[in-house]
Structure formats: structure tokens, C-alpha cells
Amino acid sequence: MESFYTIQGEGYYQGKAAYFIRLGGCDVGCVWCDVKDSWDASRHPQQSIDEIVSAAAAYPGRMAVITGGEPLMHNLDTLTAALHEAGFQTNIETSGSSPLSGEWDWICLSPKKFKFPLPEILPLAHELKVVIFNKSDFAWAEKYAAQVSPTCKLYLAPEWDKSKEMTPLLIEYIKENPQWELSLQIHKYINVP
């Protein structure tokens, strides 16, 4: 769908320079999705892997973040191999609802109620990021925290349009449950993609 060089705005690598590769196609359909334009892959021109990697290599950062839509709707083996060959760290942001492909240095799993993650992906996650849209989402977060690796980083993120309402609840929850950390979409605060 698009690619751009910016900083990672959330999660473990927040604040780091990153080249984002947003793939078209999504069958999860989150009502609060902020990139609904990505859902229909046919609306976006295809690019070769060489074109994608060459565009990424034009920038000094060497962290590539594959996102979507739902990037695992595509087989990512060849793309991640090419990125590794070009010296990139490969990170993915996924709901985990499709089978895992690709060679990943970092897997950010963000499970969604609209289409559950596959059980085999849960223990592979390095980062669990749960979007909090309403109070029932805390229980949803704990359900998945119990299924990831003990070394997985745990993040709670307020849904952007409800951040004024939800952030104070997240702060209190994290104070009571310090295994969690707060993840804000700082890219939206500083107005970068």
C-alpha cells in the first residue's frame, strides 16, 4: 500500500528510526482501524521485492517494520530474506490471525477480537500490544498475556479516538499490574507518519 521512513511511534522500539512497509489486504476489519484504506489489496499497485528493498536501502536506518492491513495474509519469506541480506532488522506488526511466514527479528502481536490470533503464533511474540477500546479489553489483554512467552514485553495502548477517556484507566491499571507498560502512538502526537 505504502512505504515511508519515519520513527517507530509505539511499543518496544518507540522513537527508533524505521522504514515502514505497509502491505495491502486485511481480513480482520477492526472498527477503529486508522488505515482502512489498506484493507483492499487490489486498490494498491504491486511492487517487486527488489523495488521495496531498494527504496528502504536509500535511508540510513536499518530497521524495517512490515505492517498492514494484516501483513501475514502474504507469504513474507522472500521479502524478509531480501531485507536481511540488505542488512535490515525485520520487525512485524500483526494480529497473528494468519499463518506465520518470514524470518523475523521482532514480532509485535496485537490480537484483535474481530479475528483471533492463531495459537502457534502466541509463544513466538516478542511484544504483545493490546489496544484498549473499553474496560472489557483489560480481561482480553490478560487472556493473551497468559499465553505468550514469559519474556514477551507487555504493552497496553489506548485506542486513539478514546485516548483521553482510556489513558487514565490504563495508567491506574498499569500501576496495579506493573508487568504491563503504556504504549502511546507518539507519531500522532508529533505529527509524523
From TrEMBL:
Keywords: 4Fe-4S, Iron, Iron-sulfur, Lyase, Magnesium, Metal-binding, Queuosine biosynthesis, S-adenosyl-L-methionine. S-adenosyl-L-methionine binds at residues 32-34, 69, 110-112. Its EC number is 4.3.99.3. GO terms for molecular function: 4 iron, 4 sulfur cluster binding; carbon-nitrogen lyase activity; magnesium ion binding; S-adenosyl-L-methionine binding. It comes from the Bacteria. Signal peptide: none annotated. [4Fe-4S] cluster binds at residues 26, 30, 33. SUPFAM superfamilies: Radical SAM enzymes. Pfam families: Radical_SAM (PF04055). Substrate binds at residues 7-9, 22, 67, 193. Its cofactor is Mg(2+); S-adenosyl-L-methionine; [4Fe-4S] cluster. It catalyses: 6-carboxy-5,6,7,8-tetrahydropterin + H(+) = 7-carboxy-7-carbaguanine + NH4(+). Residues 13-193 form the Radical SAM core domain. Pathway: Purine metabolism; 7-cyano-7-deazaguanine biosynthesis. One of its GO terms (biological process) is tRNA queuosine(34) biosynthetic process. Binds 1 S-adenosyl-L-methionine per subunit. Binds 1 [4Fe-4S] cluster. The cluster is coordinated with 3 cysteines and an exchangeable S-adenosyl-L-methionine. The keyword Methyltransferase does not apply. Homodimer. Catalyzes the complex heterocyclic radical-mediated conversion of 6-carboxy-5,6,7,8-tetrahydropterin (CPH4) to 7-carboxy-7-deazaguanine (CDG), a step common to the biosynthetic pathways of all 7-deazapurine-containing compounds. Belongs to the radical SAM superfamily. 7-carboxy-7-deazaguanine synthase family. This is 7-carboxy-7-deazaguanine synthase. It comes from Paraflavitalea soli.
